[in-house]
Amino acid sequence: MFNTGNTGHISGSYPLFLGEDLGFADSINQPYPILEKLYDEQMGFIWNHTEVDLTQDRQDMLSLPKEVTDLMVETILWQTLADSVASRAIGSTILKYVSNPGLQDLYNAIILFETIHSKTYLHIIRQTFVDPNGALKRGYQSLEAIKRSTLLMDTFNNLLNAKDDLPTKELRKLIMFCVVALFLLENINFMASFAVTFAIAETGVYQGIASNVKLIARDEMLHGRSGGELLRILAKEWPETFEEVRPMFKSMLDSVVSDEHAWADHLFSTGRQVIGLNAKLLKDYVDYMAIPVASILGVNFSGPKENPLPYMDSWLDSSKTQAAAQEIQLTNYLLNSIKSSSEEEIDSVLRKYAC
């Protein structure tokens, strides 16, 4: 629980993973200040899962056509599943290998917010769904929803079930695959799901649900940037491992894109529809969002050069919507901070496509 012999405060060396067991939660001798910045930014976003009124959304659920309500129900159920897995996966698997105090803090913050997200979705289900328990049963039985999450669950299960005597080289690979799986989840799977919620909200309904999801999307964009920073650092700390497994990054990316395409077909089957979005547009958006992810992973991927869903700009770009004073203050702080070129590159690549 507390390593009295930790030497990080002397050497200034706190590798992200597989270093010395941690002693003090040392934020004084942090070799990667970006981790502290990301933690501070995340905690500045703190919010409560019950703060948005869902009264009208309950009425929308009762009065809107089935093809629209089913689209929202399917989307919310998968989001609930994915956030439940994300918070549990980090806490029960990868966190025990962390040897950097800043990363430990950041992961704990991400776990907290993923928990807020899952509680928010469950609050939405409880307050607006006609049969909340029936909806959960439907989620457990949805083979399409489970398949959409297979890569994430399998990747973390591989690390969870790793043998104690597994060679360090192989353990590094499993850890890196988990970091990549989360990176893909936050920058592709979640963004595609948000696109459906916001498309429905663009028609003037489910405004409470959309307001909640907008807060969640803001958090997930930060988590996506965090994943990009971790990969940048790991490429420096474990260069040989990073290059050895890079071909697998491409396979993982292609798998996620393929699963999202299949989900889009499922989502818009059996008559489900919403104005401004269909299966083809959603697939194009998935491909569009995969481009910056591929760039950061160092693999090739072709997709649309222009955002096929321009309405996403107003939902994801906080500069186009009214922000809380706390957010404005934080944004100004970040804009006035001096960043390294590598941090700027990751921010610019991800923000360009998200907003």
UniProtKB/TrEMBL annotation:
Question: Per its record, how is this protein called by name?
Answer: ribonucleoside-diphosphate reductase
Cofactors needed by this protein, per the record, are: Fe cation
Native organism is Escherichia coli
Q: State any single GO MF term.
A: ribonucleoside-diphosphate reductase activity, thioredoxin disulfide as acceptor
A single GO BP: deoxyribonucleotide biosynthetic process
Q: Which domain of life is it from?
A: Bacteria
Q: What class of enzyme is it?
A: oxidoreductase
Entry's EC annotation: 1.17.4.1
State whether keyword DNA repair applies. no
Question: Which Pfam family, any one, appears in the UniProt record?
Answer: Ribonuc_red_sm
Tell me which CDD domains the record gives: RNRR2 (cd01049)
